[in-house]
Specification:
The protein is an alpha/beta fold. It folds into 2 domains: 231 residues, 3-Layer(aba) Sandwich (Rossmann fold); 148 residues, Glutathione S-transferase Yfyf (Class Pi), Chain A, domain 2 (Up-down Bundle), CATH 1.20.1050. 39% of the residues lie in helices and 23% in strands. It is built from 10 helices and 17 strands. It has a 6-stranded antiparallel sheet, with helices on one face. Strands 9-14-15-4-16-17 form a 6-stranded mixed sheet, sandwiched between helices. The chain starts with 5 loop residues before the first helix and ends with a strand. Bound molecules: adenosine-5'-diphosphate and magnesium ion. The site of adenosine-5'-diphosphate (ADP) has 15 residues, from α2. It is found in: Cytoplasm.
Amino acid sequence: MPATAPEAADRAEPAAVRRLTVTDFRSYDRATMEPDSRPVVLTGPNGAGKTNLLEAVSMLSPGLGLRRARLTEMTRRGAERWAVAAMVERHGETVAVGTGIAGDPGQEKRVARLDGESVGPMQLSGVTPVTWLTPQMDRLFLDGAAVRRRFMDRLILGFDPDHGARANRYERTMRERLRLLKDGNRDDRWLGALEAQMAEHGVAIAAARLAWAKRTARAVRAGIGPFPAAEIALEGLETALDGRPAVEVEEGLMAGLRDGREEDARAGMTRLGPHRSDLAVRHLSRDAAAEQCSTGEQKALLIALILADARMQAAERGVTPILLLDEVAAHLDADRRAALYDEIAALGSQAWMTGTEGHLFDMLGERAQHYEVRDSALTPASRS
Ligand SMILES: Nc1ncnc2c1ncn2[C@@H]1O[C@H](COP(=O)(O)OP(=O)(O)O)[C@@H](O)[C@H]1O
Ligand SMILES: [Mg+2]
């Protein structure tokens, strides 16, 4: 049985990049493509420029993009500054999204445009809902909690576009408090005001994560075709918040921060708050924590999570996110590959998929558009 998501697909409008132009971005001096809303398949040899294009699409949303690169790293060697421009379709409307860097050497900053108007980069939030899975994420369940928090917070951005701004405000306040403490400043009013803000933003972050986890948990518990059914749980401030009034948790966090000033100053870190939380994932049929599963099972769990999140976003927000699946197909057996393609088709998602072998995508046939990437040049490939 192919996996389907009829309830989601019926109501949701898939987001899609309808034109993409990259300028002095990574290995590209300039390239343009005009995809339709079907999935995009990029095939070509190693080093051809496939992942670079996925990274360009990831820059249409706020943040560091799928390689978490420094801004200047993305500028083509020998060029001055990169730019990515796109026409993005969602809710039946088309928005011109532009981003890149500006500023003198050493002072570069990210710039963004929406329909020709300059906006702050955070205002790209929610405009192009995009989710990715890359080979670098294979260690997601094995590495420290920060990686999983980032993964979860990125997914939440699709569900709740204010989540990123909230996290930025929290981080900024936390840094300021810690700097005061390290400098030996014990101004109670100043510290108290910062702690009150940290508690407010911190509980808002935890609440957004909790809401996301509850909704995603339902989809991921059911399993998606041959992808494993899983259980997700949050550990940390979110646990305290579950079933308790937010104000109570906020007051608790504020008091905890106040009482922990000396210890935080000594440790040089903030020991309480949503920046310490973790996302725990369990493989249900194995009855094992994700980190105890095989590499292949971990990958399958990640795909299940991303697909469940996409279903949830489609159902709850009415927009199916763009999925950037770098080198995913090569690591799946034929059954799972077929199921992935069927689920993408059922969701109607414009999934961007890369691989070195064209035959991996044969099962997609006309359901996708295919491009050959060679030496950072794109050629539409016919699949008839
Ligand atoms: N800033 C840059 N300037 C020029 N070339 C770059 C830059 N960053 C990466 N590259 C080149 O891009 C190529 C890798 O492209 P990539 O998209 O990762 O290939 P693949 O098709 O294997 O996914 C490499 O040859 C690398 O040297
Ligand atoms: Mg690659």
